[in-house]
Amino acid sequence: MPQQYLALDFGGTFTKYALMDKAGAFLAQGKTPSGRGSLEQMLAAVRPLRDAFAGQYAGVAVSMPGRIDAARGVACTGGSFHFIRDTPMQALLEEMFGAPVTIANDGKCAASAEAWNGALADVEDGVVIVLGTGTGGGIVLGGRVRMGCAFGAGELSYLGVDLHRLVERGLEKTPDSMESIWANYMSATGLLKFYGRCKGLDGPIPGVDGLAFFAAYDRGEPEARAALARFGQYAAAGIYSMQAVLDVQRVAIGGGISARPEVTAVIRDSVDRLFEAIPFTTFGRPEVVPCRHGNNANLMGALSFHLDRHGG
């Protein structure tokens, strides 16, 4: 059997896949629409890959959303795959692909990729923050990805930033209550909300996405510039709070909007200004850098988890 591996990254819209060697080189890759209606649809969407890559892989490495018990191969929850509840994904996929399978949470896969041969490879302690609809991420301590007792370490979306609101309102899925957690600010969604407010609205501008925002930014629009600056301030405040618990050496910024160097730069500058403004801080100021692996991080990290368990 060749020392090649099939990696899968189950996403809300597409499932990315890649045939990779043990060094993490991509030999082939692509994507297919995700099955969102049921577990059967989810599995059916990737079944053709079994035949397409027959005889070419020694194992299957899987990244997916949700609380994932990687040691047992069980998906306790599935994020946007709402039908996942204590589902034995590893066993189901091993039966399908006829090879050893490893599954892990997508944010933890991104952190594992950066710890393996990316932006965190030369530090012991670091955090990956993935800017998407919410705030994904993973924590690396002592060179290892921290899972947590309930497999939820690094779920940075839920970092409390308005404790009064959190106490009084709890966390309902309403725009108002979501303002109590970091995901409302430290995300691509949060950036667009800041932009809408700079335009005099209560939230995002209908029809405006990240591409439209950065087009306005590139034109020098004052509201877009102000929104990114405000986003950086809230990012820095959350990183400051996170540092009080973790005290890591480096924070790596990933996710779609991180492809724009201004995003990491404004977070870095805001972190520097905040730490300089609070002279009595008793923990370290982290270095803020971009992630190295971009949109391939989940696939790369899934492979690193697989190799760590099964060798290769």
Automatic annotation (TrEMBL):
InterPro entries linked to this entry: ATPase_NBD, ROK
What Pfam families has UniProt attached to this entry?
ROK
| Protein origin, superkingdom | Bacteria
Gene3D superfamilies registered for this protein in UniProt:
3.30.420.40
Hey, which family's this protein in?
Belongs to the ROK (NagC/XylR) family.
User: Which protein are we looking at?
Assistant: ROK family protein
Q: Give the organism the record lists.
A: Candidatus Faecalibacterium faecipullorum
